Amino acid sequence: MIFDPYHQWLGIPPAEQPPDYYRLLGLSQFESDPDVIDNAADQRMAHIRTVQAGEHSDDAGRLLNEVATARRALLVAAGEPIREMRVVPPPVIAEVVEEPHSYLPRRPEMLPKPPPPKTTPSPPQKHLEHTNDNSGLTWFLFFLACSWVLWVSATQ
Asked: Is 64 within a domain?
């Protein structure tokens, strides 16, 4: 049996993998409260650290890095300045995160998906385009015929 750390440790079933950042931290979609995001990341990281010394330490280190990345990305999206974040990475994360912009997602599918834009339906437009309706020609011919009948009857 293949070990699935997302499912075994975080309760994320294979059908919901790869998880987006909200699912990875166990948050509702588009959560924007920095304290809620921070606390959720702390809880996930504390739980993963309990299994870090086991046989799947590589998976634990990778998940810790993903949770830290999710925390940073969501806090930045929530408007929390990076310098004010209280991220205390374990030694494994310090080795993996090497660039200064590590808060950016490494996997595009983990980016949070924004809600669809709210649009209001526009009122129907009246089109002034030409149609093949010959009603104008019909009325003109009718008027012409009536005029001819009146002219013929007046001249006799």
From this structure: yes
Q: Does position 46 have pLDDT exceeding 80, yes or no?
A: yes
Is residue 14 domain-resident? yes
DSSP 8-state symbol, 107: S
18 vs 24: CA distance, rounded Å: 9
What is the residue range of 89's domain?
A: 5-110
97 against 112, higher pLDDT: 112
Count of structural domains within the chain: 1
Instruction: Write the pLDDT tens digit of every residue in 81-92.
Output: 554 444 445 444
Mean pLDDT of 21-33: 90
**Which residue bears the tokens 């987006």?**
20
Taking the C-alpha atoms of residue 10 and residue 17, their distance in angstroms, rounded to an integer, is 11
Helices (H) and strands (E) in the chain, counts: 6, 0
Taking the model in full, what pTM does it have? 0.52
> Which secondary-structure segment (H or E) carries 57?
helix 57-77
